[in-house]
């Protein structure tokens, strides 16, 4: 977190370094747990950035503001997603952290950007919109493709993310083609990504692929009509919507067919 640290307190240092006993002592001595720096960084922000769940819990139990915001708009939850501490994310949510504050940096986008899949899944389980479009970063799927976080791409698609929603007119497939990520391109096209979508520069994903690269080869191979099996899979998944992962089991289909629908 950027800014001036001239007014950092011993409480901030103990929280950031994960020194639980020191933190307990300072609180017992009367230090205000909501003391902030000139950049409005609290000890709770620091504990979350360090991924120190015991310190996070102690501060919250002693009245730390769970949705405190720094001068840069960062919340403790954002910092926990930055550090990749799923335990901190869970504790913050238990104490009433808001998964998303309007007009503030997005925790789920930060988790995806850094490849912290578990943090991302926890936020999605707390009803964060899987297709939430951040003006600066686009959707979580777009961020995952831009930063080539393949585990996050797989899980987002599995949970029903819109395969064509990216950043304005730029789709996740544009991002994957731009990054020359063959595995991500294959995943997206398997899930029905539109190869003909054009971005603000009127370019389709194929236009962004490096000539004679593997990505270009994959995109060219998939330009033709999809197989009947693929069309059926996409149609059934579209009908079931985001509940597809859970609804498929209720159809009592033969195991090979269920696995096919769920890309297993």
From TrEMBL:
Which Pfam family is an annotated match for this chain, by its short name? SOCS_box
* Record keywords, A-Z: ANK repeat, Endoplasmic reticulum, Repeat, Ubl conjugation pathway
Q: Which ranges carry the SOCS box domain?
A: 214-264
Q: What domain of life does the native source organism fall in? A: Eukaryota
What Gene Ontology terms describe where this protein resides (cellular component)? endoplasmic reticulum
Record InterPro entries: Ankyrin-SOCS_box_domain (IPR051573), Ankyrin_rpt (IPR002110), Ankyrin_rpt-contain_sf (IPR036770), SOCS_box (IPR001496), SOCS_box-like_dom_sf (IPR036036)
Q: In which pathway does it act?
A: Protein modification; protein ubiquitination
The UniProt entry lists the main location of this chain as endoplasmic reticulum
Instruction: Tell me where in or outside the cell this protein is found.
Output: Endoplasmic reticulum
ANK repeat segments: 6-38, 39-71, 72-104, 103-135, 136-168, 168-200
| Family indicated by similarity | Belongs to the ankyrin SOCS box (ASB) family.
Q: Which PANTHER family match?
A: ANKYRIN REPEAT AND SOCS BOX PROTEIN 11 (PTHR24136:SF14), SOWAH (DROSOPHILA) HOMOLOG (PTHR24136)
Report what the protein is called.
Answer: Ankyrin repeat and SOCS box protein 11
Q: State the organism named in the record.
A: Todus mexicanus
Q: Which gene encodes it?
A: Asb11
């Amino acid at each position: 977190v950027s800014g001036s640290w001239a007014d950092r307190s011993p409480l901030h240092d103990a929280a950031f370094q994960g020194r639980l006993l020191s933190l307990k002592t300072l609180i017992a001595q009367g230090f205000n747990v909501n003391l902030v720096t000139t950049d409005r960084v609290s000890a709770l922000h620091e504990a979350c950035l360090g991924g120190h769940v015991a310190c996070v819990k102690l501060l919250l139990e002693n009245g730390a503001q769970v949705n405190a915001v720094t001068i840069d708009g960062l919340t403790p939850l954002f910092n926990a997603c930055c550090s990749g501490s799923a335990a901190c994310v869970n504790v913050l949510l238990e104490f009433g952290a808001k998964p998303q504050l309007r007009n503030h940096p997005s925790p789920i986008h930060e988790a995806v950007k850094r490849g912290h899949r578990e943090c991302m899944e926890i936020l999605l389980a707390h009803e964060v919109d899987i297709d939430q479009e951040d003006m600066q970063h686009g959707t979580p799927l777009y961020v995952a493709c831009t930063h080539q976080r393949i585990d996050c791409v797989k899980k987002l698609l599995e949970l029903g993310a819109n395969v064509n929603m990216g950043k304005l007119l730029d789709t996740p497939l544009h991002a994957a083609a731009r990054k020359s990520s063959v595995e991500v391109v294959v995943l997206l096209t398997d899930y029905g990504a539109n190869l003909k979508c054009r971005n603000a520069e009127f370019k389709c994903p194929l236009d962004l692929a490096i000539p004679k690269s593997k990505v270009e080869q994959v995109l060219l191979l998939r330009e033709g009509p999809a197989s009947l099996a693929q069309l059926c899979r996409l149609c059934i998944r579209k009908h079931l919507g985001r509940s597809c992962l859970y609804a498929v089991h209720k159809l009592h289909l033969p195991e090979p067919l269920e696995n096919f629908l769920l890309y297993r």
